[in-house]
Design a protein that fits this description.
- The chain has about 425 residues and is of the alpha+beta class.
- The protein is about 35% helix and about 20% strand.
- The chain has 15 helices and 16 strands.
- α1 (about 15-35) packs antiparallel against α5 and α5 packs parallel to α10.
- Bound molecules: histidyl-adenosine monophosphate.
- Histidyl-adenosine monophosphate binds near residues 117, 283 and 286.
- Histidyl-adenosine monophosphate binds near residues 127, 131, 133, 288 and 308.
Length: about 425
C-alpha cells in the first residue's frame, strides 16, 4: 500500500494547533480593527512578474524560493504561488484605483505563503503570515504606529521578551553611494566570498548583507554601514521614527546590519525577535517602508509601509515559553438514548438545541446507554440529555455529569434549562 504524507516542508495544523492559530488570528483581527485596518484577500497565486518586479529578481525569495506553477500551454501566463502578500496587495491597490480613496489605505490579511526553502524548525515551505499594509502615507509617524502595532500583537499573544530591531536603509538618493562602498568592500574580500555571493556582488550587493551563508557572518559584521551613508532627508526621517517609538514606549534597538531580504524596501526596516535569538531565520516578523513599490507595479508614485508576522514561529515560541495550547471546548451536552436504534429522536433533539445556539453533540452510535454516557464524560460534556420512555409524553432525563445528579425536564424547557446552566457554570 502506498503511504501518503504531507509534502516536505508543509505540515498539517491538527485541531490543537489550529486552535492556537485561531486565537492568534482573533488577536490580529481585534488589533487591526482597533487600529483602523480593513481586511483584504488577494489570490494565493499571481503573475510571476508581480513578485519578480516587486520583490526583486536577485533575491533569495525570487531566485531560489519561488514556487512557480508550470504553464499549461506555451502562451500561458507565468504564475507563482505568493511568497508574501505585499506585492499582491500593492498590485490590487493599483488595479482597483485605490489611490483615489482617502490615504493612507490601511489593509490587512492573514493566510498561507509559499517559499521553496530548505525546511527546518521554524522554516516551512507553506507558512502563515499576519500582514498589515498602510499605503499612501510617507511617515515617519505611521512607521512608529505600525511597529507599535506589531509589538502589541506579540504582547497580546503572550510572547515574552520580544525585541524590535530597527534600521534605515536609505532611498534612491543615498543608496547608490552606499552600494558603491559596499561593492568596494566585498571586492576587497573576493577571495573569501562563497561563489553564490561573489556572483551576486555585481548584481545586488545589498543581498550579501542578509546572506544565510554562515561564511558571511564575520565579513558582514565589518561591512560599511548604511546608517553612516544616509542622506539628510533619510537621516531626519529615521531620527523622527526613533523619537516617535520612544514617545510610545516601544523598546527598540538600532541594528545597522538589518537590510531585510526583499528589494522593495526604502528607509525604515524592522524585525521582531525574541531577545537573544537574533540568528538568521529566527525573526518572528519583519517589515518596512516601500516607497517605490506602487510605482514599480504600475501606479503613481505612492509611499507605503507594512509588516508580515510569521504565525508558525509565534506558535513555536509560545510552546517553548511553556504556554499550554488553547483548551478544547467540549460540548455543553451530549444527547444519548436508551434505545440504541432511535437515532432519529437523538438527532432531532440535538438539532433543536443547536438551533437554540447551544454546543451539543448527538451520540449517533448504536452502543448501549452506559457506553454513551462514558463517552460523554470523556468528551468533557457538562450534561447528558437522556432520551427514554418519558419522551412519549415530552420529557427527558437531564443528567449533570459533573455534579452526578439527574432530573426530569420537559423537552420544551430543555434549551432554556441548558442555557441557564451554562451561564451559571460560566459565572459561578
Ligand atoms: P519577510 O521577512 O520575508 O517579510 O517575512 C515575514 C515573516 O514571515 C518572517 O519574519 C518570518 O516570521 C515569517 N517567515 C518567512 N519565511 C518563512 C518560512 N519559510 N517559514 C516560516 N515562517 C517564515 C515579508 O514577507 C514582507 N512581505 C513583510 C512586509 C509587509 N513588508 C512590508 N509589508
Amino acid at each position: 500500500m502506498a503511504s501518503f504524507r504531507a509534502p516536505r516542508g508543509t505540515r498539517d495544523l491538527l485541531p490543537d494547533e489550529r486552535a492556537v492559530f485561531d486565537r492568534l488570528q482573533r488577536i490580529a483581527a481585534g488589533l487591526t480593527q482597533r487600529y483602523g485596518y480593513r481586511s483584504i484577500e488577494t489570490p494565493l497565486f499571481e503573475q510571476a512578474a508581480v513578485f519578480e518586479r516587486g520583490i526583486g529578481e536577485v533575491t533569495d525569495v525570487v531566485e531560489k524560493e519561488l514556487f512557480r506553477i508550470a504553464p499549461r500551454s506555451e502562451e500561458a501566463e507565468s504564475w507563482a504561488l505568493r511568497p508574501e502578500p505585499t506585492a499582491g496587495i500593492v498590485r490590487a491597490y493599483v488595479q482597483h484605483g485605490m489611490q483615489t480613496l482617502p490615504q493612507p489605505v490601511k489593509l490587512t490579511t492573514t493566510g498561507p505563503m509559499f517559499r521553496y526553502d530548505r525546511p527546518q524548525a521554524g522554516r516551512y515551505r507553506q507558512f502563515w503570515q499576519f500582514d498589515v499594509e498602510a499605503i499612501g502615507d510617507p511617515g515617519p509617524a505611521i512607521d512608529a504606529e505600525i511597529i507599535e502595532l506589531g509589538h502589541r500583537f506579540y504582547t497580546e499573544a503572550g510572547v515574552a521578551g520580544v525585541e524590535v530591531l530597527v534600521n534605515s536603509i536609505g532611498d534612491p538618493a543615498c543608496r547608490p553611494a552606499y552600494i558603491a562602498a559596499l561593492v568596494a568592500y566585498y571586492r576587497g574580500h573576493a577571495d573569501v566570498l562563497p561563489p553564490t555571493e561573489r556572483d551576486r556582488l555585481e548584481r545586488n550587493a545589498l543581498r550579501l548583507l542578509d546572506s544565510k551563508d554562515p561564511a558571511m557572518t564575520e565579513l558582514n559584521a565589518a561591512a560599511p554601514r548604511i546608517t553612516d551613508h544616509l542622506c539628510e532627508a533619510c537621516a531626519a526621517h529615521f531620527a523622527s521614527v526613533k523619537a516617535h517609538l520612544e514617545a510610545l514606549g516601544v523598546p527598540f534597538r538600532v541594528e545597522p546590519g538589518l537590510v531585510r531580504g526583499l528589494d522593495y524596501y526604502t528607509r525604515t526596516a524592522f524585525e521582531f525577535y525574541v531577545a537573544g535569538r537574533e540568528g538568521q531565520q529566527q525573526a518572528l516578523g519583519g517589515g518596512g517602508r516601500y516607497d517605490g513599490l506602487v510605482e514599480l507595479l504600475g501606479g503613481k508614485p505612492t509611499p507605503g509601509i507594512g509588516f508580515g508576522l510569521g504565525l508558525d514561529r509565534v506558535a513555536l515560541v509560545l510552546v517553548e515559553q511553556g504556554h499550554a495550547g488553547v483548551p478544547a471546548d467540549g460540548p455543553l451536552a451530549v444527547v444519548a438514548g436508551a434505545d440504541p436504534e432511535d437515532t432519529v429522536a437523538r438527532l432531532r433533539v440535538a438539532t433543536d438545541l443547536r438551533a437554540a445556539g447551544l454546543r451539543v453533540r448527538a451520540d449517533l452510535g448504536r452502543r448501549k446507554l452506559g457506553r454513551q454516557l462514558e463517552a460523554a464524560g470523556k468528551d468533557g460534556a457538562h450534561f447528558a440529555v437522556i432520551l427514554g420512555d418519558e419522551l412519549a409524553d415530552g420529557h427527558v432525563q437531564l443528567r449533570d455529569l459533573l455534579a452526578g445528579t439527574q432530573r426530569v425536564v420537559g423537552v420544551d424547557d430543555l434549551a432554556r434549562e441548558l442555557a441557564r446552566a451554562e451561564q451559571h457554570h460560566k459565572h459561578g
